[in-house]
Amino acid sequence: MILFSQRHKEAIEDKRLPISISKRIRQKIIYCMQRYNRWYGGNQESSIFYDDLKQNLLESYGDTSLKAYVDDIFRETDNVEQFILGTKPEYVLDAIEVYSGLIDKPSQRVNFHKECNLIFKTENSSFRILDGLIIKLDSAFLESEILSKAYELLKDNHFEKACRDFLNARNNLTAEDYSGTIIEANNAIESTLKSVLNKEKGEQGNLKKWLMKSGIIPDYFQGFCEHFEGLLQSAFTIANESSRHGKRDMPDKRNEVNYSVASFFLHLTGALIVFIMERYQESLPEDEVPF
Asked: What average pLDDT does range 189-202 have in this prediction?
């Protein structure tokens, strides 16, 4: 598992992704983790909070000890509570992701996510955990009506993979990873279609055909879907090559993957998701609408 601090390493180091986790949030997270702690072993001597969380973090970091500020001194610590209270904020988010994966029962894991999100929301933090991964909601995202509405529709319908992909696209835009924005926007469309069509696999071309046959959207949208797919695919190809090989040397500056291109595709993706999700909700029997 690639943890939050590892996924956003460059943006954090370049200070393009500012992170702050208050002492109160840290302590609340500790209490929350303790509620979902599970002891095991012959004499119940080990636990997922006090033992497994620490070991998994060490393995993820490739380190032999955890480090944090304890009594204003940055030092090694064997105490996972001290680590969460005194480490860098991105490592606190790592701990939440790791701990989520240690909770065996799906129902308890979902409840753990809900409690963490309630903590973040109550403390006016922009972080949320979706499908086991931490994402950040920034003010620009919330101020954009189409992006916010797409997010809310995905969240309310429990399309967590699509929701996470879409928010990752927005976070990439904030972090100036424009190629990553387009790639994640593409992933968000695919995840949305898979959830709406109840398909585990499928390329975007096939998903589009199944969407047309499903009756969720009007027949006269056939042409639009084809043009949108071509538009998205062309940008995705450039973005994918850019992310794999570094910034491409474009003979024409107009073809660079920059902010305006990435923002356009993110908002276009958001508008399409809103349309698909609203049509999907309209197709459901009243007793199946998830809210």
From this structure: 87
Indicate whether 117 and 160 sit together in one domain.
no
Q: Are 44 and 37 in contact (CB under 8 A)?
A: no
Domain count across the chain? 2
d(CA 32, CA 244): 39
Report the amino acid identity of residue 83. F
Give dist(CA 130, CA 169) in Å, integer: 14
Domain ends where: 136, 160, 187? Answer: 136
**42-56, 149-163, 242-256: which range is least confident on average?**
242-256
User: Does residue 242 share a domain with residue 118?
Assistant: no
Residue 290 has pLDDT above 70, yes or no: no
- d(CA 194, CA 231) in angstroms, rounded, equals 20
- The span from the CA of 138 to the CA of 118, in Å, is 17
Are residue 97 and residue 183 in the same domain, yes or no?
no
- In the numeric block, which tokens belong to residue 226? 């084809």
CB neighbours of 87 closer than 8 A, spacing ≥ 6? 66, 67, 68, 69
Which residue matches tokens 């996470």? Answer: 164
Give the structural domain span for 200.
Answer: 138-291
The answer on 142 and 20 residing in a single domain is no
Same domain? 181 vs 125: no
Using alpha carbons, list the distances in angstroms from residue 117 to 27, 269, 283.
Answer: 14, 25, 30
What distance in Å separates the CA atoms of residue 21 and residue 140, rounded to the nearest whole number? 20
Secondary structure letter of residue 51 according to DSSP: I
pTM: 0.64
Number of Cα atoms under 13 Å in the Cβ half of residue 279: 19
Burial of 148 (0-12, 13-18, 19+ CB in 10 A): middle
